[in-house]
Amino acid sequence: MIRIRDEGRVRVVTLDRPDSRNALRPADLTDLRTAVEGADEPVTYLRGAGDAFCAGADIDVVAALDDAAAFARRGQRTMSAIANAETVVVCGIDGAARGGGVELALAADVRIATPAATFGEPGVSFGLFGAWGGTVRLPRVMGEGDALEFALSGRVLDADEALRTGLVSRIVDDPRAVADAIAGGKSDALAVVKRRIRDRRDDEMQERAEADAFDDLVRSHADEIAADRAD
């Protein structure tokens, strides 16, 4: 469930499935895209309810996929919509970000962690990887060396290491305060700065290859994915 609250110059978008650590289903991806694209406010603040930011894709959905590439493309469209929206998206990460939750943070313009934030790409342990644009954005944000070690090892980074690698830009107790500060800028200037820094020309081709590879892996590791869901 995606909850929206407009507060002056900031739209607050909350991933509100705390019992599932805010795991995302296909409908949630669509609603998240609509929430961000529909923002009239110059800044959108993205957060998770409860004690996690986002556990990524709902594992029950992944285990039952008939067309994994289509699911990957849906996620890619949502992440691209966030990256390309007129509104500046500030992501406040408090608690766990895993898999697609890391990819969601990567799509945001500004990533702010609390001291309790942790980050992990656990998919390699059961034969998957982040296919919502993660293989495109992660090396841009962290650098290729740190991105490869992070994604291949499946290990969890704490907030301090996320800061060191560039995965987040600050560690604060209240990430919302950063969103409010950015919202004090002129709306047109904020939009232009985002558009110029975000200018990319070759994402579509890379993401198509990413989705196809994800589809192959889901087919190859269907039994392991189902077993992980059962655990």
TrEMBL record:
Gene3D superfamilies: 2-enoyl-CoA Hydratase, Chain A, domain 1
InterPro entries: ClpP/crotonase-like_dom_sf, Enoyl-CoA_hydra/iso
CDD domains assigned to the protein according to its UniProt record, in alphabetical order: crotonase-like
PANTHER family xrefs: ENOYL-COA HYDRATASE (PTHR43802), IP11341P-RELATED (PTHR43802:SF1)
Family membership noted in the UniProt record: Belongs to the enoyl-CoA hydratase/isomerase family.
Protein name from the UniProt record: Enoyl-CoA hydratase/isomerase family protein
Organism expressing this protein natively: Halorubrum trueperi
